[in-house]
Specification:
3 copies of one chain form a homotrimer.
Chain A (H helix, E strand, L loop, with lengths): L1 E6 H12 L4 E7 L2 E7 L5 E8 L5 E4 L15 H8 L2 E7 H9 L5 E7 L4 E6 L2 E6 L19 E6 H12 L4 E8 L1 E7 L4 E7 L5 E2 L2 E8 H8 L7 E6 L5 E7 L4 E7 L7
Antiparallel strand pairs in A: 1-5, 1-7, 2-3, 2-6, 3-4, 4-18, 7-8, 8-9, 10-14, 10-16, 11-12, 11-15, 12-13, 16-17, 17-18
Helix pairs in contact in A: 1-3, 4-5
Protein name (chains A, B, C): DNA polymerase sliding clamp
GO molecular function, one term (chains A, B, C): DNA binding
Family (chains A, B, C): Belongs to the PCNA family.
Chain lengths: 268, 268, 268
């Protein structure tokens, strides 16, 4: 059983952070909130998402008891496993869900899960949607998060980051993110032109001095930058020829999003 | 002879209500104002339009006298008929006319008909357009309005109606409009999802309680919803598996628009 | 050596006035500022552009001395000629440059030329672009401005001119600009419709009375009208079946733009 109420703007912000990486995926509902971990179809980018139950105005959750009469026959291995974890998995088309939420004005959203029918009942004011869920077993398995250690951390205003990405798209296909001493930089080279953003420590919210840089596909960074349009600051975790982990908070700190992106091999 | 002045916004609102159903059509000009009745090319939707002469800031109208010297030879049967009715028919490309009016800022529009040359002279400030009219005999005949009796009438805020239509377009191809007791509802079912708007009597401006519902093509309802963008309230006249008549006022009550839409057979 | 600072809005306005006619071209940098003269690929329209050095917040310019050690070998005829004129030619892709400037917010732009590498270094706040210049010898030769005498001059509000052009585009492919006594007019005839703007002397900023008119391609006039979006007034220099010269100022009077457009032969 899952029943919840949440601010529409907060829910949109959350789903938007997912659609930056994946079109569909499975939420894990537990007593403590909502979780998701998914990789993009090309296996280059990963999103880890977590929303605490206190981000909701109402949050009711209960896993149906194993062996209850109504469900005995239907119990599959997957369900058994899910129960043992005290969680419910629901598969969703996030792109469609975001489109539906986009109609809803500024209301609160009520969500109610019909596990038997695999439907999510979504109410916004006088509008009620019944959304068919996707079969979780038809969706890709949840990826493992690799163990990573990042020597350098940069906290930057989201708007500055996004503007630079938009500028970089006019120049090239890849982008270097790096730290050189006390300067954070983003650099793109096209066939003809070169773009460089350089920010000193005092132009950033935080910077670990160091000497690292890695090259990334601009397509993915650009997609990520669309998942954080309502976020004030983002944290970039960097290394030398190393993955990028980009963290930010949603739902006024009651939700966390992490994007992980594999580096490209630099041709020098 | 026809010569008139009218507020540009009012005229745009009127023409926009027509282009929701037809691209072209014929106005009947009479002593008392402007009228039009036309069906869409697929014969599924009809628009009836009426604009009183007092919606105009200036309205001069006169049918040329039969048998006057200048016209004797040119008198055709059609003209004779038109005269006998004390009216002038003019054929127009409404889509083009709306585009032209869209350039005009916030001025007043002056209209002047040149019957001989079949041109409509349109002046907005310093800009003057001379528009060639369409030959009325080349346009479809004016349809007859079927006699209908509607057991149920609902008056609803236009914005609520339009928002629901936009939401429904994301879900399915058809929409049910119905009244169940004291609730008015709109319902769309797609392959995967279902959308329902339910409004109680106190969320509506008016409602006749009853039990009726009919299914309509969403394409046509959606087109209609684009013809009423400046209107505050609309009246829905409903029956059981029956046509929909959607009425609203334009020109501050000095004009009336009615859309009539045939129902679809529901597969159950 | 060329190094300059200029307001970003002013520079955008200047480049925009060029892209109305050409995608690329060569600036001539001199002690007194920036100049350009170019024709469109179809040889129908020409732009003459001039920006005084005092439009810049900083303007440093020096032609490298002939026979200096580093350059002796590289000296080509073109360079020799350029030196003799005390000017530097730089070839630019204006469309790309405008796109890059569009990212820059409201900052000041710093420009620095690297003649040896044929790069223009462009800094806006923390963003630095290195733009590869085009080889001036690969670009079309600078056209000669024909000697013209215009009997009639009209000064008109840019917005009125642009609105009429937008309206004319809905009607036809050509436009007549003319003066008839004390009235300036613009007139377009399509297959079906006719549009005419007529402005009396008191609706204009200035008018030389006369009797002239010429026909022009609307495509070119329309392109020109996109190059003056921040300009308040424009001057139209007209004759009978004669080219149009359209003048306006940029950079608060410290820059001048002239468009010259060949007339079309009128079929009557």
């Amino acid at each position: 059983m899952f029943k919840a109420k949440i601010d529409l703007t907060v829910l949109k912000e959350c789903i938007e952070s997912l659609t930056a990486i994946v079109d569909e995926g499975k939420f894990r509902l537990t007593e403590s909130g909502l979780k998701l971990r998914a990789v993009d179809p090309a296996n280059v980018a990963m999103v880890s998402f977590e929303l605490q139950r206190d981000a909701f105005d109402l949050f009711q959750f209960a896993v149906k008891e194993s062996g209850s009469e109504a469900d005995t026959d239907a119990d599959t291995e997957a369900e058994a496993e899910s129960e043992s974890k005290d969680e419910i998995e629901i598969g969703m088309d996030f792109v469609k869900f975001l489109g539906i939420l986009g109609i809803g004005g500024r209301d609160e959203v009520e969500l109610e899960l019909d596990e038997q029918a695999q439907k999510l009942f979504t109410r916004m004011g006088s509008l009620a949607y019944t959304i068919s869920l996707l079969d979780p077993s038809s969706l890709r398995k949840e990826p493992k998060v690799p163990e990573l250690e990042f020597p350098v951390q940069v906290i930057i205003e989201t708007e500055m980051f996004r503007r630079t990405i938009r500028a970089a798209e006019k120049v090239g296909d890849h982008i270097v993110l790096g730290v050189d001493g006390e300067v954070f930089y983003m650099e793109t080279e096209g066939e003809m032109d070169k773009l460089r953003l350089g920010l000193k420590k005092d132009q950033l919210i935080q910077l670990t001095p160091g000497t690292v840089h890695s090259l990334y596909s601009l397509d993915f960074i650009s997609a990520m930058s669309k998942g954080m349009s309502h976020v004030e600051n983002i944290t970039l975790n960097l290394g030398k020829d190393y993955p990028l982990r980009l963290d930010f908070e949603v739902a006024e700190g009651k939700g966390k999003v992490s994007y992980l992106l594999a580096p490209r091999i630099e041709n020098e």
